[in-house]
Amino acid sequence: MTNTNTNQTMTVMTTTMMGASVVTRLRRAFAVLALAAAVAVSGAVWLAPRTAVAGPKVLPVATARTPAAAADDAPSARGGKKAVTGKLNLNTATADQLMLLPGVGPSKAERVVAWRGKHGPFKRVADLRKVNGFGYKTLKKLEPHLDIKGESTLQPGG
Length: 158
Fold this sequence. Notes:
- The chain is mainly α and 158 residues long.
- The chain contains five helices and four strands.
- The relative contact order is 0.11.
């Protein structure tokens, strides 16, 4: 009888273990299905075509210009480009002379004079890049008007 009880107990344990295994597998399968459904729904929401919120910009219609209106639009002293001729010696130029250069105002001119006072004369025109506010583009724009030797001949005008 003990042998029969042992067999029955083994059978119950095996069935219970198999049942637990089946339940665990079903739970995992359900979790995977739920995750796949969530991904599919979110993909459909995020990838759905949408209408544009912002429309094209409407450009103003050009009107006939009078000579007076054209004169009003001429470059101002602050925003306009300065036309200059000649060369400017970086080592002897004053702040006022430096301000004749296009894109150089009082602040940049003072920085050049201060840099020259602290570090000595410029050894080459490209050393101007060491001054704060004078990058590659600014140097390329000013280079035709700059020199480190000779007399300053820079003049405003075309």
